[in-house]
Input
Amino acid sequence: MNHERSRELYGRALSVLAGGVNSSVRATKPYPFFIERGDGAHVIDADGNKYLDYVMGYGPLLYGHDLPEPVAAAIQSHAADGPMYGAPTEIEVELAEFVARHVPSVEMLRFVNSGTEATVSAVRLARGHTGRDKIVVMQGGYHGAQESTLVEGDANNPQPSTAGIPEEFAQHTLPIPFNDPDAAQAVFEEHGDDIAAVLTEPILGNMGIVMPVDGFHETLRELCDDHGSLLIFDEVITGFRVGGLQCAQGKFGITPDLTTFGKIVGGGFPVGAIGGRAELIEQFAPSGDVFQSGTFSGHPVTMAAGLANLEYAAENDVYDHVNSLGEQLRSGLRDILADQAPEYTVVGTDSMFKVIFTRDGATDRGSQCGAGCQQDPDCQHYDHCPKTGADVADADTERWERLFWQAMKDQGVFLTANQYESQFISYAHTEADIEETLAAYAEAL
Ligand code: PLP
Output
């Protein structure tokens, strides 16, 4: 493949954008390919190369790059009316009503502009509501580029995970292993009176897709109830992707106090949202005393895109289609790995998937351990499935990122370059695309 134009653009970008990009994950090696346009399930780069796309904007694009006609029409009509006003519009009320109607825990919301903003506001709301400072997070979880959650280590020794965050800030964040009820119990025993909230993705989506084991969310729910802390589900990835319109909380039958959204709820435009019980959400100013604000929040074009997106999903076979392709792909991948790389692991659910380059012998995990096993204690492979961030932390990231990702790209398949970030299937993908993808995996492996 020729990438001359991308190389040239990257050269220009390097002199005006830090690292040549606007989000660190896009800085793929040796240089990113620049996208010119999308076409259904494909993207076309600046040199005219075409790739089957499983990045899907890192999750927001439920329909791929060709929007259904009503979605495109809603966007165009709101954009044509002037982009935004700094005053309320009907469309934001309609999207809020739609979300509140479908997502079990949500009675009221506030829209913001990114998943990061949503988790920042949710944490502030939890602290304001409880008058407490500490939040519990999961090791390997991700909640955006914010001070309270860019923390690593464990509950006894939390440390900022990036330069630029004061150590004192990190002391308020208590990381515990996902799927470890004893660790959750212990952190509440020690800090229970100071914990404002437990903040977790219902499925870890930035650590290779780690499913919750049976009972873990229930334990968190109980501990929060017993100690007067809030349970916050970060559904920025899983919202309106896993569990259909009810999201992951509907799939697992757990009702968090607060939920954060992003990605799909904005239909491909910048978005975030914090939802929950009315008495909690009403603590945002001006009805309450927790400050929250945003010039672009509830942007009419975003709201129109989000609403048309979700209404289309409610009226068509969107989730059936993407989830069944997800099953086809994961099952095909399991067969390929069993044959070619039995030490590797297929993970995922609904329309999310990933192959993790787990190492032979180090974990005794096999390709048989897909998402079903992670969920089913009766499965013969259950003990060997990844259940915590640490279980997948030893993966061969170098091999994935330097060799495998490139080999897939060379065959015209665009995957997330990071070993741990999920991939996504859209309504534009077809069974034939999945077969083509499986052949590319077999070849690249
Ligand atoms: N929460 C989760 C679970 C995410 O995966 C992300 C981003 O990928 C965020 C929050 C942050 O969202 P954004 O990048 O829109 O700020």
Residues 4-66+318-444 form a domain with the Aspartate Aminotransferase, domain 1 fold (CATH 3.90.1150.10). Residues 318-340 form the longest helix (23 residues). The chain has two domains: 4-66+318-444, 69-315.
